[in-house]
Design a protein that fits this description.
It holds the Pfam family TetR_C_46. InterPro entries: DesT_TetR_C (IPR054129), Homeodomain-like_sf (IPR009057), HTH-type_TetR-like_transc_reg (IPR050109), HTH_TetR (IPR001647). This protein folds into two domains: about 60 residues, Arc Repressor Mutant, subunit A (Orthogonal Bundle), CATH 1.10.10; about 120 residues, Orthogonal Bundle (Tetracycline Repressor, domain 2), CATH 1.10.357. The N terminus is likely disordered. Helix 2 crosses helix 3 and helix 7 packs across helix 8. The protein is built from nine helices and no strands. The protein is about 70% helix and about 0% strand. The chain is mainly α. The radius of gyration is 20 Å and the shape is elongated.
């Protein structure tokens, strides 16, 4: 149990502001895993953390800033948990990352869906956070594979290929969210293998770079 969520009877340890804020963000992400973003209030966090609302407003100026900070932390957690393993070929590493992504969505489904909706809403900061996370996840595919790894699949790193891979990431996001809600008879391993195979097909199907003019 983190100090931020320690019961009121426990001795209170005085933390420096940076550490306390990090713990509050950790608690915010934990609470988000089982509720919509709109349900994540300053009052709820203050109650769970055992601190005053005023202190929370000291760390997060208002509810919107609090939500943005929690979403940014959740996005960072997603990037970290799906980091590719060092062992295995490109296909194996991709399957491991996809499996970890699926596990993340399963464990945080309600909050994750809420994050996706917020990214598609009117708040430009939410959109920016989510687009940065999506770009980090897809760009990492190219960085991990390297030129030689891509060549094994007959793929060259071009803007068109990256465009198509970003589209694949949107497909994965939608399919995984829907699969968690209703697997439709698709086994977990089959889902992962299909998503991996689609990426290979998408990458090799990207049009070649044509000279301008």
């Amino acid at each position: 149990m983190s100090a931020a969520s320690a019961p009121s009877g426990s001795p209170r340890v005085r933390l420096d502001p940076a550490t306390r804020k990090e713990q509050l963000l950790d608690l915010g992400v934990e609470l988000l895993s089982t509720r919509d973003l709109d349900e994540l209030s300053i009052d709820l966090l203050a109650e769970r953390a055992g601190i005053s609302r005023g202190l929370l407003y000291h760390y997060f100026g208002n509810k919107q800033e609090f939500h943005e900070a929690v979403v940014r932390r959740a996005a960072a957690d997603l990037i970290a948990v799906t980091a590719p393993v060092e062992d295995g070929d490109m296909g194996t590493r991709l399957l491991v990352s996809l499996d970890r992504y699926l596990a993340f969505v399963e464990a945080n489904h309600r909050g994750y869906v809420s994050l996706v909706r917020a990214a598609n809403g009117s708040n430009p900061v939410m959109r920016e956070i989510y687009e940065e996370a999506r770009a980090a996840l897809t760009d990492r595919i190219f960085a991990t594979a390297g030129e030689q790894g891509l060549a094994e699949f007959g793929v060259v790193d071009t803007p068109a290929v990256r465009l198509f891979v970003r589209g694949w990431a949107v497909l994965v996001e939608d399919v995984v969210i829907r699969w968690v809600e209703d697997p439709a008879g698709v086994a977990r391993d089959d889902l992962l293998l299909s998503l991996s195979a689609i990426l290979a097909q998408v990458a090799v199907s990207a049009p070649p770079v044509r000279p301008e003019g």
